[in-house]
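Predict the structure of HTH luxR-type domain-containing protein.
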Amino acid sequence: MAPTSPARDVAIVAFAQSDHRRRTDELSEVELLMPVLHEVLDATGLKTSDIGFTCSGSSDYLAGRAFSFTMALDGVGAWPPISESHVEMDGAWALYEAWVKILTGEADGILIEILLARGRIQEAQELSDTYNYGQVVPGAVVYPDSETVYSELLIARGLRTDAEERLRAVGRRLEPRGMRNPMWCPWRPLLAQTIAHTDPGEAADIAQEAVEIARRFGTPGAIGRALHAAAKVASGADSLALMAEAVRQLERSPAAYELAQALVDHGAMLSRAGLPQDAADLLMRGLESAALCGADALAARAREELAASGLRPLQLRTVDSDSLTSQEKAVAERAAQGWENKRIAEELSIKERTVELLLSGAFRKLGTDRSGLAGLLPHQTRGSGIRGVPPGR
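Done. Here is the predicted structure for HTH luxR-type domain-containing protein.
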C-alpha cells in the first residue's frame, strides 16, 4: 500500500480584521497589520515565541483574482460588479489558500528548506517523518516540488544514492509533461552535484543542460543557480569562471540565500587557488549575507573558510534588511527608471562594478529584481528630480 499523509485538522482559533477605512495612504502595510496580529495574540493568550511559522494567503476578488483558478476573470472583468464590497470574500479566499498550502504539504516543503539552510537537519527529518513528506507526490503542482525537497534532505543526510534515485524519478515524472520550470523544480542541478563523484561526465552533461534550460527561462536567479551547480561539477579554470558568472547573475536577483552560497563557494575556490585577498572579500560578503538570511550552517562554513585561509572575520556590519542605504537608494531609483548600469555609474561618479553590488543589495532587501523596482519605489521615482527624468513621469 502506498504511504499516505496523516490527516490534518486545521482549527481556526481566533479571528481579527483591520478597521474599515476609505483610504490608507498614510499607513504602511506593517502599520495596518500589527494591530490585527496583536488582537489575535490577545484573544488566544499566545506570544510570538509560541508561533512556529506563518502561512499567508492573498486575494483580490474585485480584480477577478479570488484564487488562482479564477484568473480567467481578468479577461472579462470581475463579477459581481466592483461597485460592491467583497472584503469578506477576499478574506475567505485568502484563508482557503493558506489552508490548501498546509494540506498539500507546501508549507512543510518551505519549512524543511529553511531548516536545512540553518543546518538543522535532524529537525527537518523529524518534520518529514511526521507528515510522510516526500513519500506521496501530490496530484496538483505544489511549490516547492516535494520529491525534490525530500532529495535535498537526503543529500544533507549524506544519502546520495537514495537522493540520486529520487531525483531521476522526478525527471521521469516531469519530462514527459514538458514541465521544465527551473525555479519550481531544480532537479537537474541537484542531480548533477549528487553524481559528480561517481559519474563526472554525466554530471557535467546534466549541469550544462540545466544551464541551457535556465537561460531560456531567463531569470537571473534560475541562471545563477544552474551556473553554481555547473561550477561545482567542473574543474580548474572552467569552474572558477562558471562560479564567477553565477555570482554575477545572483547579484541581479532577490535570491539572497543562493547568492550567499555562491559567494562562499567562490571564495573557497579562490582561496584554494592561492588568491587569499580576493577570497577574503567574497567570503566576508558571503558570511554577512548568510547571517542576514539566518543561514547558520552556511555562516559557520564561511567562518571556517576564512580561518583556513589564515584570516579572521571582521565585525559583521549590522544592516536593517528592510531599508536601503543612501547609495542603494540612489542607484535603485535610477535603475527603476530604466537607466543602464554604465549611465548610473557615470552619473554618480562610481565604478560600474559598485553599481552592480549596490543593486544586488537593493534586490535582496526589496525582494525583487530589476524589473520590479519601479513598482516598489513609486514614491521615490515619481518627481524625484533625477537628471534626465522629467518630474511627474
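The domain at 327-381 is CATH 1.10.10.10 (Arc Repressor Mutant, subunit A).
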